[in-house]
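Morning. Coffee machine broken again, so started the prediction first thing and wrote up yesterday's gels while waiting. Chain of 460 residues, entered below exactly as on the submission form.
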Amino acid sequence: MKKIFFLFVAILILPSIIAINLDVEKQDVSNVIIQGVNQPAVFDLKIKNLGAPANLQFYNLFGFSMAPKGTVYFTTNEEKTIQLLVYPTENFQYRGFYTFKYFIRGQDGTQIAYDLTIKVIDLKDAFEIGSGEVNLDLSSMKIYVHNRESHNFEKVKAKFESPFFEFEKTFSLGPNERKEFEIELNKQDFNKLTAGFYTLKAEFEVDDEKTNLEGTIKFAEKDLLKTTKESDGFIINTQTIKKTNEGNLMVGSETVVKKNIISRLFTTMNPEPDIVERDGFDIYYTWANEIKPGESSEVMIKTNWTLPLVIMLFVIVSVILAKQYTKTNLSLRKRVSFVKAKGGEFALKITISATANNQIEKISVIDRVPPLVKIYERFGSEKPKRVNEKTRRIEWEFNSLQKGETRVLSYVIYSKIGVLGKFALPTATAIYEMDGKIHESQSNRAFFIAEQRKGDVEGY
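Came back before lunch.
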C-alpha cells in the first residue's frame, strides 16, 4: 500500500521538478517583415535557465519559419542572448501589426508560450521619397529617400525620373535612415515648363522585388520677361523688338509702335498688328499675346524711305505724261474709292472718266478686274456692253465722242476676304478710230491703301 502511495506522489511531483523554468526578456531589433523580400524580422531574446539543464527548441503554430532551428543547450542558471529570426510566409495576406504566440520547448516536452508581434508591410510602404524646391537660379537640387521602418536594407537599387532629370543609384539604407542625393540640373531640359508641382517617380528593387513610388517636386515661380530692341539701317530702317520669357510663368506681353501718317505709308510689319488706333496725325500699332516659358515673341517693322524718292520721280513722270496725255485723242482717268458694304465685305468703287480731245468713233473701253474680287451686279449710268467673269473683263462701247465730250463709267467690286495694305488695280484700255485709223489709249494705274475696318454693301 505504501509503494502505491509513493508512486502516486512521484507522478504528481516529478514533472514540476523537471519542467523548464526560464526568465525571458525580448528586445525588438527589427520587427518588420516585407512581403516579397526574403529578409526576416529580428528579435533578441535574453534567456536565463532557472531550472535543470535543458535543450531548448523554438517554434510556432502559424507557419512562420523561425531560427535558430534545432535546439540550444542551457545549463542551470546559464544566461544567453538568442537572436530569433522570423521569416515571412509566401501567401500571408495580412498587413500591419500581427501578434502570435511562439513556444520554447524543453527536451522533456514541457513548453512555455510567449507573445511575439511583427509588422507585415509591402515594399512600397517601407520608403518615402521627396525633393527640395527647383529654382531657375539653381544649377542643382536634392532628393531624399527615407527608410520609414526599423529594417536594414543592405542593397537598394533605385531609378528616379521627373521632368527635370533622370537619376540611378544603388545604396544601403539603415533602420529609419534618410539619405539625400544632389543632382546636377540642365536648364535646357525644363526651360519650357511652367511653375507648379510635378511628379517625382521612382522604381525601387530589393532582392528581386520591385515597387514604384511617387513624390512631388515644387517648381518655384519666377516671372522674367526680357526685351531686346535692334534697329538697323537709315534709308531702309528695320526695327526688331524681341521679347523672351526666361521665367516659368505664362506672361502677357504688349508691344506698341507709333508711326505718323506719312511714315506709316512706307512701313511694313511682320506679323500684322492686333490693334490699329489713330490719334490725330499719329497711328499706334499694338501686338498683344501671351508668351509661354522658354518661348519668344518677335515683331519686325521695316520703313523704306526710298519710296518717297520713287514717289517724287513718279510725280515728275506723271506730270510729263499728263502733258503728253492731254495731247492724245482720248484721255482715260481711273479712280478708286472705298464703299461701305451691308454684309461687312471689302468693297471698292472704280470710276473711269473717258474724255475726247478730238472727235473719234467706234470707241471700246476695256477694264480688267483683279483676282479674288467679284463684280457687283449694279452699274452706273453707263451700262457695260459685256461682262465676262471668266476672263474678268468689262467692256463699254460708244459709236462716237465729240471733242470735249466726257463719259463716266463706274462699277463696284467686293470681296469677303478682307484686304489690308496696298491694293493695286490694272490700267483701263480704250480702242477707237480716227480718220480711218485705229488708235489705243491707256489710263493711269489706281491704288488703294486699306486698313482694318468694317462697314455695310450699299449701292451708289
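The helical segments are 2-18, 306-326. Going to sketch it on the whiteboard this afternoon.
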